[in-house]
Design goal:
- This protein is of the alpha+beta class and 100 residues long.
- It has 2 domains: 1-43; 44-100, HU Protein, Chain A, CATH 4.10.520.10.
- 37% of the residues lie in helices and 27% in strands.
- Strand 3 and strand 4 form a beta hairpin.
- The radius of gyration is 19 Å and the shape is elongated.
Length: 100
């Protein structure tokens, strides 16, 4: 399994930058809450140097239950689409400009 960078790791980075842990935790919680509310309201979130988060609507799909072969309709739903910026793509691929 791939190694994960989780909220705890982000808190450690903020603490190393001099922020008190309880303030860092509150800040991260508020940022996540604000981003979730913005996406739920249909807004696009653009984070320069990271990428763009965009809510998208998926159409309903006609599928089949593999056991019974009965037709099943998968309802329409909203998903969050992430598009990485150029700097992030280069950093992930190990290219020269790693200014992320």
């Amino acid at each position: 399994m791939k190694e994960k960078f989780i909220r705890k790791d982000l808190l450690e980075v903020m603490a190393a930058a001099g922020m008190e842990s309880h303030k860092a935790r509150k800040a991260i919680d508020q940022i996540i809450e604000a981003m979730g509310a913005a996406l739920a309201a249909g807004k696009v979130i653009e984070l320069r140097g990271l990428g763009t988060l965009e809510p998208r609507e998926r159409k309903p799909l006609a599928r089949r239950n593999p056991r019974t072969m009965a037709p099943v309709t998968v309802p329409a739903r909203k998903v969050v689409f992430f598009r990485a910026c150029g700097k992030l793509k280069k950093a992930i691929n190990g290219e020269a400009d790693q200014g992320v």
